[in-house]
Design brief:
The complex is a heterodimer. In chain A, about 40% of the residues lie in helices and about 15% in strands. Chain A is an alpha+beta fold. A 9-stranded mixed beta sheet of chain A has the order 18-20-15-16-17-21-22-25-26, with no helix packed on it. Chain A has an 8-stranded mixed beta sheet with strand order 19-14-13-12-11-10-9-27. In chain B, the strands form 3 sheets. A 4-stranded antiparallel beta sheet of chain B has the order 5-4-7-8, with no helix packed on it. A two-stranded antiparallel sheet of chain B has the order 1-2. In chain B, strands 3-6 form a two-stranded antiparallel ribbon. Chain B is globular, with a radius of gyration of 20 Å. In chain B, α5 crosses α7. The model of chain B has no long low-confidence stretch (mean pLDDT about 90). Chain B has 7 helices and 8 strands. By secondary structure, chain B is of the alpha+beta class. The longest helix of chain B is centred in the C-terminal third of the chain and has 15 residues. Classes of the chains: A alpha+beta, B alpha+beta. Chains A and B meet through β1, β2 and β8 of A and β3, β8, α5 and α6 of B.
């Protein structure tokens, strides 16, 4: 039996079983096929605590479409190539074992598969299905991420209400611009097996067909459709005269229209490319047109006068600003733009000329309810790179809503993904863009003028992508060159057949071939191509030839009058005639675009595309025709090793959805100095099943958090996490909430011993009890308690409910009753405990002081803790009162250390009957005491102690004396809009965005200035924030050596297209 | 006449039993048993004589003697009254619309009937009240049918059977799948989404299924 035959072995899938109806005699019975729709769903997201519930996202491809494609592939032989590649193994295993030839073969198949998505006639309609899932009900776990499932969904045309979601209904949203949304119930779900029935597509095949494959450079040995237009045609002698093709011929070749247009576009692109290359080559030694045009008025719009006034005057009518990239001073404040695109992520690196150099993530809201009122009119005038942090739909959905970026260069990590990503890649590939896949494992990086990208170290989608460090101060030596050991690796590859062909263009042979065209030949070829096509129907081939030739002569003659735009247009008009002014301008613009070496690739392409636009060419094919003519960028380069950085630089860190613990440079001691941060995973406390790593969040420069962490370690004593059970003795100094918390925990331990192994739960419970009995409650204490609770993953579900209960009780303020506690804490506490906890807590609250006093009295040799504590507290209070906040904090931290030494005296614990559970909660009390004495938030104290004890104070030491920078941007929010939208994370116990615990972690590192990007979100409840919402700017005002002036939004206007945004900062 | 025949007997319903089959076995008309005063509680519990739950107890009244005068020395022919039962199945498409004009083949015991669904999509034919199994072939689908085994809707088995017949469930689905099937049914029928077989859901399920 061959491998292919073995792979065809049939294994039953659940819903192919024969039905055995049970019917009644006599009366009516009904038999109906299953009413739902079948899909193959790529599990792209699991979010939630290990115990659930989980929020799942499936990227759905219609099953019927996928299986029909597979049948076609079976008939064509492509399926056998895939089976041979897999060899009966799981895909990733097969991929790891494949040699170059095998990868080339499957890449050719992949090319053909992907291009089905580029043509509306063959592309499937794709959907996203999101739902909540109670863990433990099926064989579905985190290991199943990036696997394909067979789904049957019952959908109805109905608006999804928020409460429906919690009752088990999912949301079904199409990925196209219309974003049709339905309610859906999941009728069946099954992991697609490796071996399936004949028509069903196996797991490995689904993964293989969607995974981005690359071919060996320059190879064309596998029968892949040849891109003759890319390799110079069959014209090694260089005259190229045998290239003759027309749109009619393409249409007459039996292809469908979409394919014919693509073929024709590719051929025209090749011709134009040669023409463009020739023109550029012809004119390179001469003063280029840009210089001449300056005397005649701008060909391109000049930079707009709008200016950000955060920097001081430079004495020349402008202001001092940083450069971010390029050379010389620019007139504007560069910054990182965070766009309001609803739920998702989309940011841009705006340089000193206010041109977008790159987009980092290109997302848009999956849920229409969160989308902004109008899709932001993004600017592509400077041919920005499109960089994806990872292949998550809300980070690239914009690509399916606009084709404006399809002609650009994309850089993304190679990961497993589903249909929408293939759709994105197909669009870019078909329309002249480039998609480069970053293969190289971490540590690896890619330097740019504006900073660097680095590959993250995690295993799942969120944490294995790319993070961006953007220089916003521009130290003169930035960007640094790589260290001597830096090695450029073959760690990135362009995908798709366009990619293969263009990669081949960089080989010596291809370079030789592309240089053959003489200008006369090029002009004629261009004319022949355009004139013979329907695209340029009003013009004859002869006219086009003469027009192009005239333009070429004008440029080549170095006759100054011909270098004026109007003269070129006039020259062309002389050839074409006065009846085609649009065409004259079109050809002239195209020529000028090519000539204008000072313009960016995108500007040239836009001009040329604009020329075609005047002639009613399908906009979908602009880029494919033009981009190739004017683009000749070298491929991007990935370097192995750690990214070099400059200590004096200031960076904005763009995390995508990657946890800080997976971003290599955050592990450095010290890490790069960060002055603005985009919150991880939109502000969630979780990513890929891992909690937000507070240790690796950089310290905000110049903040009390950084100073405290430095001081905590700098005192010479490593301060352990305190256990301040002794705080019970000092009720005058401890907050009532903390005291009650400790008592309640004690009650919990006594009443329900099973709780004792879970101190974090008890800590959260304590906070909840405190919330019930104290008004006003200290919300920071609740958050801190919950933060600690969440450090123990096994307890997160219960802890999350505790937080919810605490929040609900918080809303009741001092009016909370015992009944309120029982009602809101339902589910958070064991039932048996719940019945008694309030009464027990109250009783013990009355009884404890005497007991403790007796305990101390009976312990000969106990330290004179009381006197020590009072003295130290007085000292701390004095410092705080005198405004020496940081010093007071440091003193307070050391005070905790003293407490720690006291309470680590075991007999005390034994005497008062407080175990580790209560000690954990008591830690809160100690922290609260120190924070109170220092006048700071308890998170800061806890963070300082934590950093010092774990040796991560170095980062704090490095930035503690820098100018203060505290801005964190949360590109998301939680609430509803117009009573129809919902978000599955709305209950913050289920990790809302931004999650209050995440906020606490950021604030503990000094990131206390909050900006919210999603205007549609209300940021309500305990996540409440009055911070500005909408488009956000992160950056650094070098002129003032300070954060951007948050009193004055940046009034941005693109100097080319005049698109305008106001950015809060 | 035996004691049972003279005083009646109780029958514990087994899988596949309904009043029709019990009546046929006992020589009664179904109405005789169903309407017997001793079965009043059963009638109140099970609204439908064709849908009983295994374990239900049915009182079978005694046969009533009937005297007929006959002349000796001649051949007489007696005909016992009996009521055949019907098999009625409505075939729907995925969207819930009837499927008229569909060719089918039904095999009950050893007899086979070919036919075409009526305008309302019904397969309808007479069968023996004691028939336990049938096979329905429609297009490429073959349905081995268990007759008389449909339990009341408020029993889990009855709930599952109806969800299976209406396409919301696989026969061997686990309990979680039953919840999803109920949820899908509720969603499709515009009911409150509870995921549990509440009275409104059960009533609509009976209405949709017909039994």
């Amino acid at each position: 039996m061959t491998i292919a035959q073995a792979s065809k072995k049939i294994s039953k899938t659940p819903w192919k079983k024969k039905r055995h109806p049970v019917l009644a005699r006599g009366k009516k019975n009904t038999l109906r096929p299953q009413p739902g729709d079948d899909f193959y769903g790529f599990l792209s997201r699991i979010e939630g605590p290990p115990e659930g519930p989980w929020h799942l996202r499936f990227e759905c491809t219609p099953r019927e479409w996928m299986e029909s494609v597979w049948r076609e592939m079976d008939a064509s032989g492509d399926a056998d190539v895939v089976r041979e590649f897999l060899g009966g193994r799981p895909f990733l295993e097969a991929f790891a074992a494949a040699d170059a030839a095998a990868r080339d073969r499957i890449a050719a198949v992949w090319d053909r598969f992907v291009m089905r998505f580029a043509d509306a006639a063959t592309a499937p309609r794709l959907w996203i299905f999101e739902m909540w899932w109670e863990v433990g009900t099926e064989e579905l776990n985190v290991d199943r991420l990036s696997h394909w499932f067979a789904l049957k969904l019952v959908t109805v045309d109905k608006a999804v209400e928020p409460e429906d979601v919690w009752k088990g209904v999912g949301v079904f949203i199409s990925t196209d611009a219309e974003a049709e949304e339905r309610a859906a119930a999941l009728l069946k779900i099954a992991l697609v097996p490796e071996l399936t029935e004949k028509d069903e597509v196996p797991q490995g095949v689904l993964q293989a067909l969607h995974f981005p494959h690359t071919r060996s450079e320059g190879t064309d040995s596998d029968g892949m459709e040849s891109m003759a237009v890319e390799d110079g045609g069959d014209d090694p002698d260089g005259n190229g005269r045998d290239i003759d093709f027309t749109m009619e011929e393409e249409l007459g070749a039996g292809q469908n229209r979409g394919r014919a247009i693509r073929h024709f576009a590719a051929k025209v692109a090749a011709v134009l490319r040669r023409f463009g290359a020739w023109l550029v080559d012809l004119l390179t030694p001469r003063p280029f047109f840009w210089a001449v045009s300056a005397t005649e008025g701008p060909r391109w719009p000049l930079l707009a006068p709008a200016e950000y006034h955060g920097s001081p005057p430079n004495g020349q009518g402008g202001h001092l600003v940083n450069r971010m990239s390029g050379v010389g001073p620019g007139p504007h404040q560069p910054f990182v733009a965070i766009y309001d695109i609803g739920q998702g992520c989309c940011s841009a690196i705006i340089n000193r000329e206010w041109r977008a150099e790159a987009y980092f993530d290109f997302g848009y809201s999956v849920d229409p309810a969160y989308a902004p009122a109008n899709q932001p009119n993004l600017c592509f005038c400077s041919e920005p790179y499109i960089i994806l942090s990872h292949w998550d739909f809300d980070h690239y959905r914009m690509s399916l809503l606009t084709d404006a970026a399809d002609g650009l260069r994309w850089i993304a990590p190679r990961q497993l993904y589903g249909g929408p990503a293939v759709q994105c890649i197909a669009n870019v590939s078909a329309r002249g863009g480039e998609v480069w896949m970053w293969d190289q494992a971490p540590p690896s990086y890619m330097p740019f003028g504006w900073g660097f990208l680095e590959r993250c170290t995690g295993g799942q989608t969120n944490n294995s992508g790319l993070a961006a460090w953007v220089c916003v101060r521009d130290d003169p030596v930035n960007p640094p060159v790589g260290p001597g050991a830096a090695v450029a690796v073959n760690g990135i590859a362009r995908i798709g057949r366009m990619g293969s062909a263009r990669t081949a263009r960089h080989t010596v042979e291809m370079q030789r071939r592309t240089q053959f065209a003489g200008h006369q030949v090029a002009a004629e070829y261009t004319a022949a191509a355009l004139g013979g096509s329907r695209l340029w129907a009003p013009l004859t081939s002869q006219r086009c030839a003469r027009a192009a030739n005239a333009a070429a002569q004008a440029f080549a003659g170095q006759n100054p009058p011909y270098q004026m735009p109007q003269n070129i247009v006039a020259a062309i008009a002389n050839v074409i005639g006065p009846n085609h002014p649009q065409h004259c301008a079109a050809i002239a613009n195209a020529c000028l675009a090519v000539l204008n070496a000072g313009a960016t690739r995108r500007q040239r392409a836009a001009a040329a595309a604009g020329a075609l636009n005047a002639l009613a060419v399908d906009p979908a094919h602009y880029a494919g025709i033009i981009e190739g003519a004017v683009r000749d960028d070298p491929p991007p380069v990935v370097y192995a090793g750690a990214a070099p950085f400059v200590a004096a630089e200031r960076y904005v860190l763009l995390t995508g959805d990657a946890n800080f613990s997976s971003i290599p440079s955050t592990a450095l001691q010290p890490p790069p100095s960060v002055v603005g941060v985009l919150a991880m995973h939109h502000g969630s406390n979780l990513s890929d099943g891992e909690f937000l790593n507070a240790d690796r969040i950089p310290f905000a420069p110049g903040t009390a958090a950084a100073i405290a962490a430095h001081d905590a370690r700098g005192g010479g004593t490593l301060i352990q996490v305190p256990h301040a059970a002794v705080g019970l003795r000092f009720q005058a100094d401890i907050t009532h909430a903390a005291r009650v918390a400790v008592v309640a925990v004690y009650a919990a331990v006594r009443q329900q011993p099973i709780v004792s192994p879970f101190p974090a739960i008890a800590a959260g419970a304590a906070a909840a009890v405190a919330a019930a009995v104290r008004a006003p409650l200290d919300p920071a204490l609740v958050a801190l308690a919950a933060t600690m609770a969440f450090e123990v993953p096994a307890e997160t579900l219960t802890a999350g409910r505790i937080v919810e209960a605490a929040a609900a009780l918080l809303a009741l303020g001092g009016a909370a009753t015992d009944d309120d506690l029982r009602r809101h804490a339902r589910g958070a506490f064991p039932a048996a405990l719940l019945a008694n906890i309030v009464a027990t807590a109250n009783a013990l609250a009355q009884a404890r002081p005497a007991n403790i006093g007796q305990a101390f009295a009976g312990l000969p040799g106990a330290p004179n803790a009381e006197l020590t504590f009072i003295a130290d507290s007085a000292g701390t209070a004095a410092l705080a009162a005198n405004g020496q906040e940081a010093a007071a904090l440091g003193f307070g931290v050391r005070l905790i250390g003293k407490l720690n030494r006291i309470i680590q005296w075991p007999p005390i614990f034994q005497a008062v009957g407080i175990g580790t559970t209560a000690a954990t909660a008591a830690t809160l009390a100690a922290i609260a005491v120190a924070a109170h004495n220092a006048g700071l938030d308890p998170e800061v104290v806890e963070s300082a102690v934590r950093a010092a004890s774990r040796g991560r104070h170095v980062g704090a030491t490095a930035v503690r004396l820098q100018p203060q920078a505290r801005t964190v941007c949360y590109p998301y929010g939680v609430s509803v809009r117009n009573n129809r939208g919902f978000h599955a994370y709305a209950r913050h116990g289920n990790f809302g965005h931004p999650h209050p615990l995440a906020i606490a972690k950021y604030e503990a590192k000094g990131w206390t200035v909050r900006l919210n990007a999603c205007a549609a979100a209300q940021h309500a409840g305990v996540q409440g924030s009055n911070a500005p919402r909408g488009h956000i700017a992160l950056g650094w005002d070098v002129g003032n050596d300070a954060p951007l002036n948050n009193q004055q939004p940046i009034a941005f206007a693109c100097p080319v297209c005049a698109n305008a945004f106001n950015f809060q900062c | 006449m035996s004691d049972a025949a003279s005083s009646g007997q109780t029958v514990v319903v087994a899988d596949g039993d309904c009043i029709s089959s019990i009546a046929a076995a006992a020589g009664h008309l179904p109405a005789t048993i169903w309407d017997d005063p001793a079965n009043r509680e059963l009638r109140e519990t099970r609204a439908n004589p064709n849908v009983l739950l295994p374990g239900d107890v049915v009182f079978v009244p005694p046969l009533r003697p009937k005297s007929v005068s006959c002349a000796t020395g001649r051949v007489h022919r007696f005909r016992r009254k009996a009521i055949p039962e019907k098999l009625r199945v409505q075939l729907l498409d995925r969207d819930g619309a009837p499927r008229p004009g569909v060719l089918y083949r039904v095999t009950v015991d050893t007899s086979t009937v070919d036919g075409e669904t009526d305008d309302a999509g019904y397969v309808e034919l007479w069968i023996s009240p004691r028939a336990m199994h049938a096979t329905l072939v429609v297009d490429d689908d073959e349905f081995p049918i268990r007759l008389g085994s449909l339990d009341p809707v408020d029993a889990l088995t009855g709930l599952r059977a109806r969800l299976v017949n209406l396409g919301y469930l696989e026969e061997d689905a686990d309990d979680d799948s039953v919840r999803r099937g109920v949820l899908a049914f509720q969603l499709n029928e515009g009911l409150e989404l509870t995921g549990t077989p509440d009275p409104a859901t059960l009533a609509r399920l009976v209405e949709c299924h017909g039994t």
